[in-house]
Amino acid sequence: MTYSEQMLNHIEEGDMAQAQKSFAWALRKDDDDTLFSLAEELYALGLTNQAQRTYLKLLERYPGEDELRTALAEIAIDNGDNDEALAYLTQIKPTSSAYLQSLLVQADLYQTEEQFEITETKLREAYQMAPEEPAILFALAEYYYLIGKFKEAIPFYFALIKKGNLEFAKVDIAGRLGTAYGQLGKFDQALGYLNQVAPGYQTSDIRFQTGLTQLALHQVKEAITTFKGLIEDDRQYASAYPALAQAYADEHHYQQALTTLQEGLAVDQYNENLYAQAAEVASHVGDMELVGTYLKKAHDLAPDNQTITLQFSNFLLHQGQDDQNLALLTAIRDENDDPQVEWNLAQSYWRKEDFDAAQESFEAAAPAMGDNPAFLRQLIDFYQEMGYQDQLKETVEHYLTIAPADIEMQALLDELEEY
């Protein structure tokens, strides 16, 4: 038995002290082929320091062996030392038999640094050199997939399938194609591929993507079955709860949707969007107290989330809680240019009979809300109550250009024109 074999046996037994002793002897006594195999084994086991020492020992003996440099570069990248990795890789010339592999390692290096243009250049150069090489097809497909260029990724995944690679590097290609087509909005094709994913690759992510695709295709009952099965098998998969709740809501099963969201909140209690969704569903079951509780919690978790703030404001308006609404919105008014903020403020000021403030907010919202019939009808009511005839007539005229069939407003305009 070689010292390398002894070391690996000691590692398997968990005896790292003896493994280290065998390693020292292996570097001194084992032949070069055995050491090269040992380095590969150590790297696969995650023992990068020992793998690096072994490769460096071999490089001393074979300074012209560029394959050792690519291996050392990979270890340097794993260790976060990109400068060291690049130093090894730049020593490998285009004439070297290891140059192709060095391009793939360089692409990996630049991708870790988010230098995506250089990453693509290196991968494309490798592709020109070996357009049929599965490792290069996979690298290009994964690169485009991971940066969200799904349309560009798909042809390379197809090329892998045509070469008989239904999986590569423990990645199911059908799953990748299904997700890519889903991201492009091509849901029929997406579901076709997702249904082909091998059982061993039916991860929670794949099952979740399948459920989302079924929802997009209005296969709601199937989506419910998919999401329920996913949650049963992986209760910590937080994203499944709002998706299942949405499916229940689509079927008007609001109590089941609410129960699902409450279960989701037990898993993901700091997700403001989950609270906001729960508030919306609670409104359908008529539990307004719960709506307020959830919206307040959502707002407390994400006070800068404008959508949630306005949802909370709309609820407060609906409940007639004008003091709370004014406190909520005046706190963000100076840093916010959303006209809905001013409109909601105007309604609370008006009900509290602060007419000057109400008029100021209505007119601040008007330039952006000028084509919103609901806003204009409310502004008309305000001007009518205040007796502002000129503003009233002008607003009614404008309103009728948007809703000319409104007989009531036409009658009001006729009345105004008599004076």
Overview of this protein structure:
The protein has 419 residues and is an all-alpha fold. Helix content is 75%, strand content 1%. The protein has 25 helices and two strands. Strands 1-2 form a two-stranded antiparallel sheet. A hairpin with a 2-residue loop joins β1 (167-168) and β2 (171-172). α4 (48-61) packs antiparallel against α5 and α19 (306-318) runs antiparallel to α20 (322-330). The chain is elongated and about 110 Å long. It starts with a helix and ends with a helix. 38% of the residues are buried. The model has no long low-confidence stretch (mean pLDDT 95).
Strand fraction equals under 5%
- What would the average pLDDT be, to the nearest integer? 95
Shape: elongated
Q: What is the H-and-E element order?
A: HHHHHHHHHHEEHHHHHHHHHHHHHHH
- Main sheet: strands, sense, barrel: 2 strands, antiparallel
Tell me the Rg in angstroms: 32 Å
In which range does the helix fraction lie?
Answer: over 70%
Q: In total, how many beta strands?
A: 2
What structural class do helix, strand and pairing data support? mainly alpha
Number of helices: 25
Task: Note the quaternary state here.
Answer: single chain
Residue runs with pLDDT of under 50 for 5 or more positions:
none
Question: Which sequence of strands runs across the widest sheet?
Answer: 1-2
Q: End-to-end distance, in Å?
A: 111 Å
